[in-house]
């Protein structure tokens, strides 16, 4: 026989969030933030690094 699912305890937070979604709407999806300012590298890359690795920024 299949067992019954255990009832989850009541949480006020979930009810409040559901009500807010009905009234205001869902929050916008998260956006990926691209770093605008990037510190320059302290040392120039060696020839071995230039030939062996691809650019990490892409």
Order of SSEs, N→C? HH
Q: What structural category characterises the helix and strand content?
A: mainly alpha
Describe the biggest sheet? none
Count of DSSP-assigned helices: 2
CA-atom Rg in angstroms: 25 Å
User: How would the global form be characterised?
Assistant: elongated
Report the span from N to C terminus.
54 Å
Strand content: under 5%
Oligomeric composition of the shown chains: single chain
Number of extended strands: 0
Tell me the helix content.
25-40%
Q: Low-confidence runs (pLDDT<50, min 5 residues)?
A: none
**Mean residue pLDDT:** 82
Summary of the model, kept short:
The chain has 2 helices and no strands. It has helices at residues 12-23, 47-52.
Write the layout of secondary structure elements.
Blueprint: H1 12-23, H2 47-52
Describe what you observe in this structure.
By secondary structure, this protein is mainly α. It is 31% helix and 0% strand. It contains 2 helices and no strands. The chain has helices at residues 12-23, 47-52. The longest helix has 12 residues, at 12-23. The radius of gyration is 25 Å and the shape is elongated. The protein starts with 11 loop residues before the first helix and ends in a 6-residue tail after the last helix. The model has no long low-confidence stretch (mean pLDDT 82).
């Amino acid at each position: 026989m299949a067992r019954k699912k255990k009832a989850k305890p009541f949480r006020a937070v979930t009810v409040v969030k559901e009500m807010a979604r009905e009234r205001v709407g869902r929050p916008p999806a998260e956006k990926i933030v691209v770093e605008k300012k990037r510190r320059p590298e302290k040392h120039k890359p060696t020839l071995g690094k230039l030939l062996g690795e691809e650019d990490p920024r892409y």
